[in-house]
Design brief:
- This protein has 256 residues and is mostly helical.
- It has one domain: ADP-ribosylglycohydrolase fold.
- Helix 2 packs across helix 15.
- The longest helix is centred in the middle third of the chain and has 18 residues.
- The protein is globular, with a radius of gyration of 16 Å.
- InterPro entries: ADP-ribosylglycohydrolase, Ribosyl_crysJ1, Ribosyl_crysJ1_sf.
- This is ADP-ribosylation/Crystallin J1.
- GO terms for molecular function: metal ion binding.
């Protein structure tokens, strides 16, 4: 879970100032948490307290209304609209990481990921993006190899995971759709050699850097089983007490 949050914070300064390189500062004075972190923690809150996804996502929006949400999500959450709005944006995929850590079976992950997405992002691609990231986190956490994960994701969701980041980096631009970002975040994880490398690869693609790194970070934490302590300290120092409390409770229950 911290893997996703670290990715979000590191990527935050590059979202609208893309850097097509692996050589960049991981943290700057401007590095901050965004909606990716807020809603990842909201997902953890749902899993800890058995509350409805829609209510919790909307509650967290009202607690942190300036975190940089997409326009459609902000209108939905601000108005406490009950119906989803048909989105295929990557918001469903960036917030799903805790599902992959908390569920006991792959089938349960896929069902809970779909549930978490459908309250807002009920387009099939929005649901598939959440399911793909949730599945990759769960499989990584439970010892699956990268080839096995890639084969499952490709077969289940039809994502093309064969494009190397070196080839994608040349042409990739801002794309907030699940189908235009989730496969590349997964590829960043697949090409990585450790947690930090996964974050650097995701940011180096360009585009929606904080969300790409958030998704890749969730998978990398699950797979590599460790995060450099300095990155944890830097990220946690940028979070308010209530978010840190939920994170701590989630680790104690599901990742202890």
């Amino acid at each position: 879970m911290l893997g996703a949050i670290i990715g979000d914070i590191i990527g935050s300064v590059y979202e609208f100032n893309n850097i097509k390189s692996l050589d960049f500062p991981l943290f700057t004075q401007q590095s901050r948490f965004t909606d990716d972190t807020v809603l990842t923690v909201a997902t953890a809150d749902v899993l800890l307290n058995s509350r409805p996804f829609r209510q919790v996502y909307q509650d967290y929006y009202h607690r942190y209304p300036q975190a940089g949400y997409g326009g459609n999500f902000a209108r939905w959450a601000k108005g406490r609209v009950r119906e989803p709005y048909g989105s295929f944006g990557n918001g469903s995929a960036m917030r799903v990481g805790p599902v992959g850590f908390a569920c006991n079976t792959l089938e349960a992950v896929l069902a809970k990921a779909a549930e978490s997405a459908a309250v807002s992002h009920n387009h099939p691609e929005g649901i598939n993006g959440a399911k793909a990231v949730g599945a990759a986190v769960f499989m990584s956490q439970n010892g699956a190899g990268k080839d096995e994960i890639a084969t499952f994701i490709t077969k289940e969701f039809g994502y093309d995971l064969t494009q190397s980041l070196d080839s994608v980096r040349r042409w990739y631009s801002f794309d907030v759709s699940c189908q235009g970002s989730v496969p590349h975040a997964i590829r960043a994880f697949l090409e990585s050699r450790d947690f930090t490398h996964a974050i650097r690869l995701a940011v180096s693609i360009g585009g929606d850097s904080d969300t790409l790194a958030c998704m890749a970070g969730a998978m990398a934490e699950a797979y590599y089983k460790e995060i450099p302590p300095k990155l944890e300290v830097e990220a946690l120092s940028r979070l308010p007490a209530d978010l840190k409390k939920t994170i701590r409770e989630f680790y104690q229950r599901y990742m202890g």
